[in-house]
Hints:
Helix content is 60%, strand content 3%. By secondary structure, it is an all-alpha fold. It has a two-stranded antiparallel sheet with strand order 1-2. Helix 1 (3-21) crosses helix 3, helix 3 (56-68) packs antiparallel against helix 4 and helix 5 (91-109) packs antiparallel against helix 6.
Amino acid sequence: NNSEEWKEKLLLCQRQVLGSSGVQGGDMKTVIRSISFAKQRFDSCATPQRQYCCLQVAIGMLLAHVASDDRQSNVQRCRARRRLQEMSQNVLTAGISASYSEECIRFIRKFDMQDHDPALTWGQKHDFAQRMKYLFLDGHIWHEASEGNTCLQIALKTATEAEPIYYDDGQVVRLWCKPSHREMTRMSDSVHAVVDAMNARLDAELPLSNLAVKFTVFDLSRWYS
């Protein structure tokens, strides 16, 4: 019942970030207004994830304001304080998750059309599997820039360049906290497990025996190359 109120507060925090820094995450120079969840949107998962990566500073400011506001209930203040303190632990998770979602949505959209060419199915599947291996299994997601900044790069840059956020009369939190080697290893193992499972599912859904895949013989661009 207070979603519009929170939306207006977040918009105000975005304006404050733009007023002091000139840009938000991802070199964004405008305020994001479409931040409400919409179940009917095809990319209702991927888009908010990228927005979170871009709005980390504004979100942190909003949480700090709530945590410091005596007019708020103790439950709300404690919840805001806890979420604010957890933000630094979730930078890499948010960035990798958003990057993974964007790649998957980009692949699915190739088939989200009225008249998809079956001759392209195998090539599109192969290219997607190779790109996911390149980015997430080989580790190039950390410095991939061929198509602009990835969500992971945006999340990292935004968090590392953010100024300290003060709350509760002197308490301070930084949005970036360098993870330990053990945490990085655990995250890398998790990403590998997810991508391996996705590739296995992709092979199960589109095996070489699938008729749609066999139409690849009519892909003239592959014959030419």
